[in-house]
């Protein structure tokens, strides 16, 4: 076995057992959300004529079952159980006070006929479909204006069978923007847990205009070559907790968004209070990304115990003139990186606009971003941090970062100001002011967050390996 293969296997083992107890800590901050996990009434999808042969289309059965269960919404809610089998379906809507529960051998399959994915209006904070002007396809599992919703299972599977959509995208034969696998809009008290999500046509899990959302103990997989198959994209949502997830996809593992240019500015719904813990994965893009659609603002993002390997970048902020909005008060700590092209990448000229009506003078505010306690092996470049001329990114703070870097010029920085301490290789000159003691208040910090000695010991051991 090659040294590289050994290192990646070692990394995966550390990701599973070394993050200060992967399993025990899964009962954490996510538990503050009040979700009713006990339902007094339960039915199986088979009671509505569904056939789990992977061939029979069961859209009508899912819709009829959920219509029937709606009568129990004010009686403590209900559960729709999906037993072992392969259950082909088109798009269907959820209801409030519902648990959709999958058996460990159950697979919900998205139809390969695009007509089974209805076309709906674009999101108001985007003004058009994300890929094409006009409308967009609705997600496979969809809901709006809901409360108290659970999508869960004993590691059952939801497979979007996205290859037909990826081919349409590559061949430029799409009529409308591709669908997500799961999208919930204007909803609250949402739990998505203990499932595997495969092959989404577009972004996989998309809570938009939501609050009080948990995504916990999920696996999200798509080929690294699949276009724009983001893992989890909180969008104009608040109080979102993402924990204990493994993601390997063709785009960002987690991408925090809040609307696109003038539409996002006008809609004015930020993403705030986003917690990400114990994330492991790889991607052709970024591990944790903010933007590029961030025109409603993004703040109070706290991420810790993050393990990224074989990826283009680990942390990414993407924005552009015309976006407006802000990204501020971001705290990312305790990251382990292996085989990353660019560990930290901020882009201030990440183009693409919905139309020509955007205001080029709407400049984003990027400030108070703290990244600390990071180790990396086989990193090509430590950082590429490029702000906007006349609109510098400010109060970028780096602390206790050790990266094994192959590039002779490990940092490339422009239009950025900030501070650093204990950074190797030494940060770029724009960030070389020391944090202590004069500038401590300029750096966003979580005073109650204390890193464990076990994490530090693990870091030292990996780097000396």
Topology overview:
Elements: H1 3-17, E1 41-44, E2 53-57, H2 59-69, E3 78-82, E4 85-89, E5 92-93, E6 98-102, E7 106-110, E8 119-120, E9 136-137, E10 141-144, E11 147-153, E12 156-159, H3 163-170, E13 182-185, E14 188-193, E15 195-198, E16 205-208, E17 211-216, E18 219-221, E19 238-249, E20 254-256, H4 261-267, E21 271-283, E22 286-290, E23 298-318, E24 326-347, E25 365-386, E26 393-405, E27 411-414, E28 416-424, H5 453-464
Parallel strand pairs: 1-3, 2-4, 3-6, 4-7, 5-10, 6-11, 7-12, 10-13, 11-14, 12-15, 13-16, 14-17, 15-18, 17-19, 18-19, 19-21, 20-22, 21-23, 22-23, 23-24, 24-25, 25-26, 25-27, 26-28
Antiparallel strand pairs: 8-9
Count of individual helical segments: 5
User: Which CATH architecture would you pick?
Assistant: 3 Solenoid
Using the alpha-carbon principal axes, give the shape.
globular
Whole-number total of structural domains: 1
Major β-sheet annotation: 22 strands, parallel
> Poorly predicted ranges (pLDDT <50, ≥5 residues)?
1-28, 449-465
**Mean pLDDT reading:** 90
Which structural category do the helix and sheet elements fall into?
mainly beta
Q: How many distinct beta strands?
A: 28
Oligomer class: single chain
Secondary structure: helix percent: 10-25%
Distance between the termini: 16 Å
Q: Can you walk me through this structure?
A:
By secondary structure, this protein is mainly beta. The chain has one domain (3-464): Single-stranded right-handed beta-helix, Pectin lyase-like (Pectate Lyase C-like), CATH 2.160.20. 11% of the residues lie in helices and 43% in strands. The chain contains five helices and 28 strands. The protein has helices spanning 3-17, 59-69, 163-170, 261-267, 453-464, and strands spanning 41-44, 53-57, 78-82, 85-89, 92-93, 98-102, 106-110, 119-120, 136-137, 141-144, 147-153, 156-159, 182-185, 188-193, 195-198, 205-208, 211-216, 219-221, 238-249, 254-256, 271-283, 286-290, 298-318, 326-347, 365-386, 393-405, 411-414, 416-424. The strands form three sheets. The protein has a 22-stranded parallel sheet that branches. The chain has a four-stranded parallel sheet with strand order 5-10-13-16. The chain has a two-stranded antiparallel ribbon with strand order 8-9. The longest helix is centred in the N-terminal third of the chain and has 15 residues, at 3-17. The radius of gyration is 22 Å and the shape is globular. The chain starts with a helix and ends with a helix.
């Amino acid at each position: 076995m090659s040294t590289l293969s050994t290192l990646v296997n070692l990394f995966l083992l550390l990701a599973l057992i070394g993050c200060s107890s992967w399993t025990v800590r899964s009962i954490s901050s996510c538990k503050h959300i009040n979700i009713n996990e006990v339902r007094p009434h339960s039915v199986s999808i088979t009671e509505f004529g569904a056939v789990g042969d992977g061939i029979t289309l069961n859209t009508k059965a899912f819709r009829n079952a959920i219509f029937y269960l709606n009568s129990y919404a004010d009686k403590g809610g209900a559960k729709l159980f999906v037993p072992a089998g392969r259950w082909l379906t088109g798009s269907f809507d959820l209801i409030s006070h519902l648990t959709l529960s999958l058996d460990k051998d159950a697979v919900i399959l998205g139809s390969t006929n695009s007509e089974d994915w209805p076309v709906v209006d674009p999101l108001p904070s985007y003004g058009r479909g994300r890929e094409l002007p006009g409308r967009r396809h609705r997600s496979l599992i969809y809901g709006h204006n809901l409360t108290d919703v659970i999508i869960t299972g004993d590691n059952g599977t939801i497979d979007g069978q996205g290859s037909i959509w990826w081919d349409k995208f590559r061949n430029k034969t799409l009529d409308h923007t591709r669908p997500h696998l799961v999208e919930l809009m204007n909803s609250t008290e949402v739990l998505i847990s203990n499932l595997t999500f495969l092959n989404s046509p577009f972004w996989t899990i998309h809570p938009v205009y939501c609050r009080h959302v948990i995504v916990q103990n999920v696996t999200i997989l798509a080929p690294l070559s699949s276009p724009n198959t983001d893992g989890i994209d909180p969008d104009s949502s608040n109080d979102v907790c993402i924990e204990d997830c493994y993601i390997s996809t063709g785009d960002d593992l987690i991408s925090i968004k809040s609307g696109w240019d003038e539409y996002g500015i006008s809609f004015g719904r930020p993403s705030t209070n986003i917690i990400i813990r114990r994330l492991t994965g790889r991607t052709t893009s970024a591990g944790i990304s903010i933007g590029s659609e961030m025109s409603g603002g993004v703040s109070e993002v706290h991420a810790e115990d993050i393990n990224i390997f074989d990826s283009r970048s680990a942390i990414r902020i993407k924005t552009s003139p015309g976006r407006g909005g802000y990204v501020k008060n971001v705290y990312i700590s305790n990251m382990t990186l292996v085989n990353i092209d660019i560990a930290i990448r901020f882009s201030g000229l990440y183009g693409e606009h919905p139309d020509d009506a955007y205001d080029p003078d709407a400049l984003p505010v990027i400030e108070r971003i703290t990244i600390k306690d990071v180790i990396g092996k086989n990193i090509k470049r430590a950082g590429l941090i490029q702000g906007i001329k006349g609109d510098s990114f400010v109060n970028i703070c780096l602390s206790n970062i050790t990266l094994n870097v192959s590039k002779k010029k490990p940092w490339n920085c422009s239009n950025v100001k900030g501070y650093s301490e204990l950074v190797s290789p030494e940060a770029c000159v724009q960030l070389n002011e020391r944090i202590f003691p004069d500038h401590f208040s300029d750096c966003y910090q979580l005073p109650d967050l204390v890193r464990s000695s076990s994490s530090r010991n693990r870091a030292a051991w990996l780097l000396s390996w």
